[in-house]
Write a structure and sequence with these properties.
- The chain is of the alpha/beta class and 277 residues long.
- It has a domain of 101 residues: Elongation Factor Tu (Ef-tu), domain 3.
- The chain has 9 helices and 15 strands.
- A 7-stranded mixed β-sheet has the order 10-9-8-7-11-12-15, with helices on both faces.
- It starts with a helix and ends in a 7-residue tail after the last helix.
- The structure holds flavin-adenine dinucleotide (FAD).
- Flavin-adenine dinucleotide (FAD) binds next to strand 4, strand 5 and helix 2.
């Protein structure tokens, strides 16, 4: 879609999308595969999000997580936390929801050229990273560039995309830390930063962090200790937002709107912005 076509679309008007498939990913999260009711194509960039809504219940932002091979469907993961997400989780195959977007700037793909990439995800934040991981595994990027993943989760059950991991691990240095694992767990125990104590971080890399706000400060500290420049650290912020267009101002932070200027920012952009991290 060119810029002219994009500007002709009223971004406040949602489109209807049909639920093509639903998969339980963890006890509180479901993966929804969606398709516009008019079967039109859907394009997005890694790290972007959509506003998903139900008439009478409002809208909320959800990260796009795939697929990367099929232009007519798109996927989101919804974790049940409140009213809207509870309603969305009750939907069944064939029912419709509203979609606006995709919104946001997405991952800084131009910065990934000739660089290794380390993705550091926490809980549901890992959803935003999955489409990039899929593309990496399909060989869409320079094969010389390595991908390393540090993923922090609550326990074995809460690990998202667990049935894709076997395939991922063949091409990716994938590490996981569980905060409350079962007694059978032989891997790293604790918060995601524990992984930094056990695993060598890939060099000449750009880092992207997506997760609960508490995690950012500690992960940035670890990356800085390893010599990462502020300009090589990117964060995706989750802020309450409504319009997705930089109009309602709910997601304003300093001089930025998370929905429009983000959700992905470099650490150098946010370092001096009060309340960002
Ligand atoms: C860019 C972006 C991407 C997101 N991607 C995903 C995703 O892929 N999957 C997913 O399940 N959720 C994602 N979220 C969070 C999701 O939007 C919220 O969980 C949702 O708005 C909750 O709506 P609710 O009505 O069910 O809950 P509410 O009743 O509104 O709130 C329930 C709880 O969720 C918290 N909450 C509400 N809105 C947000 C928010 N925007 N960010 C963080 N916490 C919030 C509230 O503080 C409260 O504790 C994303 C948020 C943003 C901003």
């Amino acid at each position: 879609m060119n810029e002219y076509e994009y500007n002709m679309i009223n971004l406040y008007v949602p489109k209807l999308a049909k639920i093509i498939n639903i998969k339980q990913e963890s006890p509180d999260s479901k993966l929804f595969t969606l398709q516009y009711q008019d079967k039109s194509e859907f394009e997005f960039t890694h790290g972007q999000f959509v506003q998903i809504g139900l008439f009478g219940w409002g809208e909320a932002p959800f990260s796009l997580c795939g697929p990367t091979t099929e232009e007519k469907t798109f996927q989101i993961v919804v974790r049940e936390v409140g009213d809207l997400t509870k309603r969305i989780q009750k939907l069944t195959k064939g029912q419709t929801i509203t979609v606006r977007g995709p919104f946001g700037n997405g991952f800084p793909m131009d910065k990934f050229v000739n660089k290794n990439v380390i993705l550091i995800g926490g809980g549901c934040g890992f959803v935003a990273m999955r489409s990039f991981v899929l593309d990496h595994n399909l060989g869409k990027f320079n094969p010389k560039n390595k991908l390393q993943i540090f993923y922090g989760c609550l326990n074995e059950e809460s690990v998202l995309f667990s049935d894709e991991l076997k395939a991922w691990k063949k091409k990716i240095d994938y590490r996981i830390a569980l905060m409350k694992p079962s007694p059978k767990w032989r891997g790293i125990k604790g918060v995601v930063t524990k992984i930094f104590e056990k695993v060598k971080v890939v060099n000449n890399a750009v880092a992207v962090i997506v997760g609960p706000p508490i995690m950012y400060k500690f992960v940035i500290e670890e990356l800085t200790k390893k010599g990462f420049a502020d300009t090589d650290i990117y964060l995706s912020l989750e802020r309450r937002m409504y319009c997705g267009l930089g109009v309602c101002q709910h997601c304003a932070i300093g001089s930025y709107y998370v929905c429009k200027d983000g959700p992905v920012f470099s650490y150098s952009q946010l370092k001096e912005t009060r309340g960002a991290i």
